[in-house]
Amino acid sequence: MATKPAKKKWQEIREILQQMKEDTLREISKTVKNGAETTAVGEPSGDIYDQASSERDRELGLLLGDREREKLHNIDEALLRIDEGEYGLCEECEEEIPLGRLKAMPFARYCVKCKSDLEKLQAQTKRFEEDRTYREIPLGGEEEDA
């Protein structure tokens, strides 16, 4: 259960998170508005290059929208951790996350060491999956005997 001193300790971070949340919501709203205007104003005609460019812009907008939604989710989780008195502790090693890291990345869930270890593990897993996928793809010119 969170105590008032713990909540007060993180008041500056809470304000930073609230501002980030407002900025992120504003950015999402702007992206949605721009996407709607592009769809309404853009003509389906045009050469293949215009259509490809429009499609690329639309995909980029969706990707950025996904990132913004993920950021918003992370901010909400950090605010909840403050309320529950669990903010500022690494979810992996349960050590305190340095204040400098929290000010730079207020929704951080891991200390620098654990985050680095996690990213290395994710990179190794991704590389292993890619290697396995490429091994399963038959090379051209080779006939399989049935």
TrEMBL record:
Pfam families: DksA_N, zf-dskA_traR. Residues 12-82 form the DnaK suppressor protein DksA N-terminal domain. SUPFAM superfamilies: DnaK suppressor protein DksA, alpha-hairpin domain, Glucocorticoid receptor-like (DNA-binding domain). Residues 85-120 form the Zinc finger DksA/TraR C4-type domain. Gene3D superfamilies: DksA, coiled-coil domain. One of its GO terms (molecular function) is zinc ion binding. The keyword Zinc-finger applies. This is TraR/DksA family transcriptional regulator. It comes from Oryzomonas rubra.
